[in-house]
Amino acid sequence: MAVLVCGGAGYIGSHMVRFLLERGEDVLVLDDLSTGHRDFVPPSVPFVQGDVRDATLLGCLFREHRVDAVFHFAAFIQVGESMRDPLAYYDNNLQGVLRLLQTMVRHGVENFVFSSTAAVYGEPELVPIPEDALKCPTNPYGETKLAVERLLHWTSVAHDLRWSALRYFNACGAALDGSIGEAHDPETHLIPLVLDAAMGRRPSVTIFGDDYDTPDGTCIRDYVHVMDLVEAHLLALNALRSGRRSSVYNLGNGRGFSVLEVVEACRRVTGRSILVEKGARRPGDPARLVASSARIREELGWEPRYTALDAIVETAWRWHGKRWG
Ligand code: UFG
Q1: Ligand 1 atom index nearest CA of 193
Q2: Which of 109, 196, 271, 302 has its CA 20 to 30 A from that of 319?
């Protein structure tokens, strides 16, 4: 039986594919390569280039392969872009899952692991944020992810479907051998941008606001390593396979780091000077987003390993050097 990884050529999906292979799973990748990278998927893995909303294609895939579980990474992920083009986000992020679930139900495939996000919470009332905190997204990206979580719930009420929704906080880092990592175009995430500045690929990095109500005035985020994320996915899948109930889990390392702390860590790890400029706040940025991941630690025994900022940056830097050096 194979695991279908939708979006398996993207940042987190490609790390998932390798991790599954290492654990002896059969893997099949579907990716339209709109943001993914074909060379991130090992040549030995069956790869289908196509759109997750293509019902005909999905029908063929499920007929040709014995799929027992589906991972969904094939979503648009940029908050700012979602504000400019909400229709594209609803179309891709919601319809993609809808088509998959329809196909899964038709073919009797019961296990679904979904990439959700901390953006479902919006501006948090309480930090660290537990899963049952108020969900009030402040952008269409978070709304689409929350809508999918509701869709999963109602689908599992009516059909034999078990699901796990994993709400990532700030995914970061790279494969330990530096062979794959974060490669967005355009890049908007903090760590790769700071490493770009360290490498001279951009002159400086702009800090979006230094007047927040935090110790150094810059935003605090919960940076969770991609290898810890993929481990959580496999734990979630195996829990579903063993009959555990559907659930939602936060994935964060439980520690918050400020933007300035990230820049300092990048200076330490790279040994390079990194020029910083102070800029205006980015609209929609909450001051502090830190996960409570107590639920997945207690229920599934997840224990993130790469929680130190320098260790996270080291893996990202190794990858950055291979890609751009
Ligand atoms: N930042 C800067 N300068 C930059 C880029 C980012 O100061 O050039 C700051 C941001 O303002 C923020 C922090 O660095 O305070 C992290 O920003 P990222 O863009 O790397 O990540 P976000 O916290 O905005 O977003 C992440 C995920 C989203 C998810 C969100 C949940 O990337 O997919 O967390 O809140 F929706």
Answers
A1: 8
A2: 302
